[in-house]
Specification:
Number of domains: 2
Bound molecules: glutathione
CATH class of the largest domain: Mainly Alpha
Largest sheet: 4 strands, mixed
Distance between the termini: 32 Å
Mean pLDDT: 97
Low-confidence stretches: none
Number of helices: 9
Strand content: 5-15%
Radius of gyration: 17 Å
Strand order of the largest sheet: 2-1-3-4
Order of helices and strands: EHEHEEHHHHHHH
Length: 212
């Protein structure tokens, strides 16, 4: 089997999720840099890999894929140990549910509408759209409340072991926590804060997200 190739920027949450899964599996990979801030994901060579102009794109054994949830499930099937999906149907639907919540609501609320205007835009010399951030706060609050409810008393979203859901949520919450709005929301969901603490001790997280 060939070594997987991830095309994207190391700062991207979705790129991080794919790299976290590969690290959890102990699979070496190549990261081919596509600069997010410079907009290289909208350039012709990347659009061949990902026609929607997003990152990451992923190559393995002569096949090319995009869409992170699909890539994560592929990684889990092709590299079997350790399993990143629970063994039971209820465990698996939980993980799939949390992954879908991130893709459908959590990423937009936390990253597109809070982290990017609050942190990334000012770091590039622009001004925060306060109305955009304000409007996103209820959705971000619901995101945290729901994933807190779904985590319940378990250590991880799929139960006792780390799953794909944990690897999709963590990079998103790490950036949300870098905003005052995110800090206030996390203070209100201590079980999620504690889960972030557990996740931060993992070797995969230290390898892929060293400064966060
Ligand atoms: N549904 C896509 C979402 C990927 C995505 O939104 N990636 C972000 C980086 S974390 C991106 O490419 N943003 C750049 C843009 O939207 O222009 C997937 O699962 O791959």
């Amino acid at each position: 089997m060939s070594q997987p190739v991830v095309y994207g920027d190391a700062i991207s949450t979705y790129v991080r999720s794919v790299r976290l899964a590969l690290e959890e599996k102990g699979v070496s990979h190549t990261l081919v840099a596509v600069d997010l801030v410079k907009g290289q994901h909208k350039e012709a060579d990347h659009l061949v890999r990902h026609p929607w102009g997003k990152m990451p794109a992923f190559e393995h054994d002569g096949n090319s894929f995009y869409e992170v949830s699909a890539i994560l499930r592929y990684i889990d099937e092709v590299f079997p140990e350790p399993a990143l999906m629970p063994a039971t149907p209820v465990g698996r639907i939980r993980v799939n549910q949390v992954m879908s919540i991130v893709d459908s609501y959590g990423y937009a609320a936390s990253i597109t509408n809070i982290f990017i205007p609050r942190v990334l835009v000012p770091s590039l010399g622009g001004q925060t759209d306060e109305a955009q951030v304000e409007a996103a706060k209820p959705q971000a609050a619901l995101f945290l409340k729901e994933i807190g409810r779904l985590l319940g008393d378990a250590s991880y979203f799929g139960g006792a072991a780390v799953s794909l859901a944990d690897l999709l949520v963590l990079p998103v919450l790490t950036y949300l926590r870098a905003t005052p709005e995110g800090q206030a929301l996390l203070a209100a969901t201590p079980s999620i804060e504690a889960w972030m603490g557990r996740m931060s001790e993992r070797g995969s997280v230290q390898a892929v997200m060293p400064a966060t």
